[in-house]
Each structure stands twice: as structure tokens, then as C-alpha cells.
Amino acid sequence: MVHPGAKRTAILLIAVLVLGWGLWQLYRPSPASPDLATLVDRVDHILIEKSARRLTASRAGQRVLQYDIALGFDPIGDKSREGDGKTPEGLFTIDRRNPNSSYHLSLGITYPQPKDIRRAAAAGIDPGGDIFIHGQPNALGNLVTLPGDWTAGCIAISNTEMEQLWRLVDLGTRVEIRP
Fold first, then answer.
1. Which fold has domain 34-178?
2. Strand (E) positions, the chain?
3. 12-21 long-range Cβ contacts below 8 angstroms, 24+ apart
4. Where are the domains of the chain?
5. FRET partner for 168 with CA separation of 20 to 30 A, picked from 34, 36, 51, 67?
6. Cα distance between residue 34 and residue 37, in whole Å
7. Rounded to an integer, what distance in angstroms lies between the CA atom of residue 32 and that of residue 40?
């Protein structure tokens, strides 16, 4: 015969183990944590979600890193002209790397696309250009990350984040910018 106290102790022990396992599953580092960035040598896709103010870089569909972002000073809607303060939406690629940018490192995207150029020409306007993913203004040094949406249409992250992204991105990397 099992002692009644032993039965309660066994049930309590099982409950603690199940609860502990559940909490570990909830709070353990996920494979999508920024630490995964040290395990891959390149990313193949960058997703920018404007409404969420989020940049996610992935490789083979697995999230490698994710950062909060700042956008153009008038971020709602697609870029249509020079000076509108909007960040373009659509599918692009990284087409240039600038280690001597006025902002801490910069990765250029293929905006404007031919359709943007045609649309702007039909409207008699300049579609704008020089859209980058970049760090903070060099004049601020490494200690300041500007709050809010402040760029002219680019995507900005902290300098530390930019250094990490810079190491993982090659020319030709796909960039998807969603509203």
C-alpha cells in the first residue's frame, strides 16, 4: 500500500516538472534570436514591415535577426516622388554597399524600379532615389539612436544592428517592403 503523503508528493513533483518544462519552452532562447546571426554567414531575404516598424532578415526561410526600424518622416503609403518622406513598397534587391555613407554604413536598394520611373515620368515628377538601409547619422557617433520616423525615405536601424546586418548581406539579397 502506498502512503497517502507519497502519492501527493508524486503528484506535486509531476506538476512542478510539467510547469517547469512549460515555462522553459516559453522562455528558452528561440532559434530566431539574434544569436543565430553568428551561426550563418549570409541572409537571403530582408523583410521590412512598415506598419510594424520591423526588419526581419532570414536565410532559407528561417529568421536570423529582427530589428525595430525608423522610416521616412511620412511613412504611410508608397513612395511616389522625391521629397515625399515615404519609404517605397515592393520587391527590391540590395544593389550597392557604402562603407563611407553619411549614415553608419548603408545598403542601397533598387529603387526606383522601371515601373516607378514610368509612373513618375507620366506625372511629370521625379520618383526620387537613393533609398538605403542604414545606421544613424555619423555626426551623432555610436551612442545615439534617433527615435521615431526621421529619414527622407530610408530604413534606419541602430549602428550596432547595422554592423551585424552589413556582415550578413551580399549584393543581390532580396528585400521585400510591405505596408
1. L,D-transpeptidase catalytic domain-like (2.40.440)
2. 45-49, 54-59, 62-68, 90-98, 106-109, 132-134, 155-156, 174-178
3. none
4. 1-30, 34-178
5. 51
6. 6
7. 12
